[in-house]
Each structure stands twice: as C-alpha cells, then as structure tokens.
User: What shape does this take?
Amino acid sequence: MNKIELVASMADISGLKKIEAERALDAFVESVEKELSHEGEVRLVGFGTFSVLRKAATEGRNPKTGAPIAIPARSVPKFKPGKQLKDVVENGSKKSSGKR
Assistant: This one.
C-alpha cells in the first residue's frame, strides 16, 4: 500500500474527505518526525512505539578492498509493534480480544 492508497483507505474508514485524510496523515507523520528528531518516542497503545535507537561508532571493512572504514555513530528510527498489531498480523483479524 502506498500513500495514495493509505489516504483513500483512511478516508473510507473515517468518513473524511480524501484531502482531510491526507492532511491528517501528513500531520501524523510530521508529529512523529518532530518527536523523534528530539530523541523522544511516540507510543500508540496496542499499535506500537516509534523511538530512536542510538548506534555507536564502529569500524567496518570495504568489501572490495578489505580496507578498514570508520562508521560514525548515528541515530536511527525504530518501530516496535504492540500486542494488538502483532495479533492482527498473526490472526488476520482486527477483532482479536487477546483470549484464546
């Protein structure tokens, strides 16, 4: 699913116009980016948590020459899915109550 398809799906499910759904999606993405850029996290209970993972500097090797390469420290975005999302993916149904 690409952005256009996601916006259409959001509009269909929520009853919003497509332009409103696109603004909502853009606002969501911007809010997550802003929070992560300040090393924060965004927690959506049941869905998952967006956070920042700090990777330390390390030394790698150039695969062609074998020469050592310094890989600088960096921050990377991370997403950890929540239980409800895991259940939906595993069972293929949104109506997962958690009881089996």
In short: The beta strands are 42-44, 48-55, 58-61, 68-71, 74-81. Residues 96-100 have pLDDT under 50 and may be disordered. The radius of gyration is 19 Å. The CA atoms of residues 1 and 90 lie 19 Å apart.
